[in-house]
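Entry under discussion copied across for reference:
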Amino acid sequence: MKVLFIGGTGNISGASSRLAVERGIDLYHLNRGTQAPMPGVKSLSADIHDPVATAAALAGHEWDAVVDWIAYGPDAVERDVELFLGRTRQYVFISSASCYQKPPRTPFITEETPLENPYWEYSRNKIACEEAARRAHRERGFPVTIVRPSLTYERVIPVALGGWADYTIVERMKAGRKVVVHGDGTSLWTITHAEDFALGFVGLLGRGEAVGEAYHITSDECLTWDQIYRAVGAAAGVEAKLVHVPTDLIREVDAGAAAGILGDKGWSAIFDNRKIKALVPGFKASIPFAEGIRRTVAWFEADPARRRIHEPNNLILDRILERYARAFPGAL
């Protein structure tokens, strides 16, 4: 099977690339060529936003599946339709589980849950992408499959505030500094290791019955946000000092972070994975967060260059704590 990943070396897609190669897929990456090729992957060098260079790189190729990991607006999907119509048997758009209705009518999420997010522009853009992809499927026969990851990690620290692709939140915990948890820390959330996601994802590539369908691919483990932050601290060898802050107060300090909470992480979410399991019977998420985050922290700590501190993250947390202390004197 010949597969093209647009992107393919990121936080989620890297694990899927490795598994695809391991399973004998003839995998190509289309990217700007600024990184060394992954072992076993063939590289096509072009900036996807440059139509002339992209057309030249793709000349002569046809695909069993094309996956766009880096499409964030409907214009990108429309571009892909023109590039790959008649040249691939399957086109996989990577959407987001944050597209599901907020506020949710129920915390139990299936693929039939409506898509609606008034809080977060990122999610609204992904919804618009899905609409463009479905329109191309309906009107032009474009062979679309939609995949919705939830919070998926391997080489990022998957917390709602204070971190992501840097080491800041871990260093802060090690220094004994307080960290902010939105709300009361008891809402339920699902975090998925990228290697677990890859099992479901690679299994749907090239599957004709997946065309015209949408799937979310997540762990079945549900944790409270307190448990998530404490697991990060435990992976760092410390006890995290948590401060629970109302999301409305967080929004006063950092509207962008609050949008991601109100539009995604602030609501309990329990994902029903029966649809992907029916398509890919071998799919089972087996890496609990406590184990996965230990691997992630160890990856950061294996190379000093990875332990980057992003001071704006510390500044935002400090400003939130200062605002909280003014609103609730004596609470800290």
